[in-house]
Amino acid sequence: MPLTHHTDRHLVRLLATDTRRTDTTPHELARSHVALGRFLAGELVEHLELEPREIRHPQGVRQGWRVADEETIALVVFMRAGLYVAEGAREVLRSASVLHVSPRRGIGLDDADLAALVELSPKTCVLVDAVVNTGASLEPVLGQLGARGLQTFVLSLVSPIPTAERLTAAWPKVQFLFARVSENQYVGKGTTDTGNRLFGTPRLGKDPAP
């Protein structure tokens, strides 16, 4: 599938500016992640089927819409940094189940997470993370889901351009939805780590990333 990103969208530029600032509070950063997660979920539903539903309207019963089989969608949230992106996505996909996971680089999900995923019996998995940097945590999970024949989407706020292009070529059945792509490729440490910035928990003694 072609690489999908929205780097030049004005809304993304505005929201991403807040995620990149070093003077933002953890709460403000989390709110920006939620807003971008909501935006990405809006783009995601363009790839899903809708079905009619009856709604209570001021003029009586009318027809509205819902995501078809929404209960069979699982948001697989990469912890910690993907938490607030997923909260934004849940504002759109309100009936989707949520599984919080901590995949290991080069290995993927452990047996307990895989068992929990099997128990949910999803038809569609949406992998959610704040940043896809090298893909070392993401790709083993893509392999695990692909082996189970699950339709898979990836939602992330940002990815370096080389990583985004490589992943798109390597996983043609996966739909990658990035808020933006970047020329920068770095791993945050200490006060610049995304999870630490979101929760105000810097790991002291680490060299900060540029």
Give a brief description.
This protein has helices spanning 10-20, 26-44, 83-90, 111-120, 138-147, 161-170, 194-199, and strands spanning 4-5, 50-57, 60-67, 73-78, 97-101, 124-131, 151-160, 175-182.
Describe the fold and architecture.
- This protein has 210 residues and is an alpha/beta fold.
- 35% of the residues lie in helices and 26% in strands.
- The chain contains seven helices and eight strands, in the order E-H-H-E-E-E-H-E-H-E-H-E-H-E-H.
- It has helices at 10-20, 26-44, 83-90, 111-120, 138-147, 161-170, 194-199, and strands at residues 4-5, 50-57, 60-67, 73-78, 97-101, 124-131, 151-160, 175-182.
- It has a six-stranded parallel sheet with strand order 1-8-7-6-4-5, with helices on both faces. Strands 2-3 form a two-stranded antiparallel ribbon.
- Strand 6 (124-131), helix 5 and strand 7 (151-160) form a beta-alpha-beta unit.
- The protein is globular.
- The two termini are 32 Å apart.
- 38% of the residues are buried.
Rg over CA atoms: 18 Å
Distance between the ends: 32 Å
Poorly predicted ranges (pLDDT <50, ≥5 residues)? 204-210
Helix content: 25-40%
Order of helices and strands: EHHEEEHEHEHEHEH
Strand content: 25-35%
* Secondary structure: number of strands: 8
Tell me, briefly, the overall form: globular
Specify the biggest β-sheet: 6 strands, parallel
Write the layout of secondary structure elements.
Elements: E1 4-5, H1 10-20, H2 26-44, E2 50-57, E3 60-67, E4 73-78, H3 83-90, E5 97-101, H4 111-120, E6 124-131, H5 138-147, E7 151-160, H6 161-170, E8 175-182, H7 194-199
Parallel strand pairs: 1-8, 4-5, 4-6, 6-7, 7-8
Antiparallel strand pairs: 2-3
Helix pairs in contact: 1-2, 2-3
